[in-house]
Amino acid sequence: MDLGISGADFIRGMALLGAGIAMGVGAIGPGIGEGFAAGKACEGIARNPEEAGLLTRTMLVGQAVSESTGIYSLVVALLLMFVVK
Amino acid sequence: MEHPVLFLPMLLKKLGLPVVLSADEAHTFLQKLLLPHVIYAWLLMLVFILIGWKVGKKIEVVPAKGQNFFETVLGGIEDFMIGIVGEEGRFIFPLIATLGIFILCSNYMGMIPGFYAPTSNLNTTLACAIIVVAYSELVGIKFHGIKYIKHFTGPVLWLAPLMFPIEVIGHLARVMSLSIRLFGNIFGEELVLAILFFLAGMYLAPLPMMVLGLFTGFIQAFIFCVLSMMYFAGAIEEAH
User: Which residues of chain B are within 8 Å of residue A75 when distances are taken between CB atoms?
Assistant: First the structure.
């Protein structure tokens, strides 16, 4: 069966598909991790409200570090979308 | 990708300078100096130098309005930094504060229509990250001399051949993680803004994302500073 798709079109389509998968799957890990960190920080603040500032700061640092895997998948998705021709 | 309307490159083009908008088209050195992210970094530098000159010119013992503001901001950053790095690391305060204020202002610059965030280009963030990591290694060598190699060899001597490559790669990966985190956050946010503007700009769809962007911009500048402080603190402390 000939669908009339040339090699370049195939590569382009697969790159876009890969970008979608990379972003979608790559967002799972940071989402779970950051939610977990925020939940634990909430528990900590409920237990010890005077330390709220320190807990929030630590939570934000940890979240930003765990977010970086999601950002890497974003960069890979952008490469697939704009660099792969 | 579609290029947004940028005021300063348009202005410089009107003045007859060879301005191009993407790195692929830049061939001569002058063209590379006049890429959008470089132009806006120049602008930011100019603003900072003017502000610093203006504020530093008339320092008083009893601070007036403007000096009060800057003393609060810089004093806050310094106290926070000393809490992480320790008293002996006070000399890196100028670098950390400069990087923090530069990154914060350049993150926010992308919010203004017609302006471009210098940090949404990998080259700017890579420059900042290389400076921080290279300087932290130099500080380690300055504080410990040849014993700085103990930071790389791990806790047990016979594990050293295994630990050394891992630690070297880990130190080099700091450059990548620092630069790509900042770049990806800011560029991704600008991309989302552009897409939302393209889809439903008439109904003010990008506005909620812009509020989120104000938050992200601050957090990313903060994270960059905190991680650099931690690298410096790791270089200053004794190996264990």
Answer: 180, 183-184
Tell me the chain B residues in contact with residue A64 when contact means C-beta distances shorter than 8 Å. Answer: 181, 219-220, 223
Quote the Cα angle for A22-B225-B185, to 5°.
Answer: 25
Amino acid at position B115, single letter: F
Phi-psi region of B204 (alpha: psi -120 to 50; beta: other; left: phi over 0): left
Question: pLDDT-derived band of residue B207, with 50, 70 and 90 as boundaries?
Answer: confident
Q: And the tokens for B42?
A: 């120049």
B25-55: pLDDT as tens digits: 777 778 777 888 888 898 999 999 998 888 8
Evaluate if residue B121 carries a pLDDT over 50: yes
Q: Closest partner residue to A61 among B185, B187, B223, by Cβ? A: B223
How high is the ipTM of this complex?
0.77
| Residue A41 pLDDT > 50 | yes
Cα–Cα distances (Å) from A60 to B108, B115, B199, B213, B219, in that order, read 19, 28, 32, 15, 8
Residues of B whose CB is below 8 A from A60: 219, 222-223
Q: Domains of chain B: which residue ranges?
A: 70-236
Cβ–Cβ contact A28 with B under 8 A: no
Residue written as tokens 């990966």? B173
Q: What is the pLDDT of residue B21?
A: 75
Handedness of CA A54, B175, A31, B184 (dihedral sign): positive
Nearest CA in chain B to A67: B181
Radius of gyration of chain A (CA): 20
Q: Which residue of A has its CA nearest to B2?
A: A82
SS (H, E, C) B31-42: HHHCCHHHHHHH
Answer whether B181 sits within 8 Å of A71, measured CB to CB: yes
A29 versus B146: which is more confidently predicted? A29
**CB–CB contact B181 A64 (8 Å):** yes
Q: Count CB atoms within 10 A of the CB of residue B63.
A: 13
CB contact under 8 A, B184 and A61: no
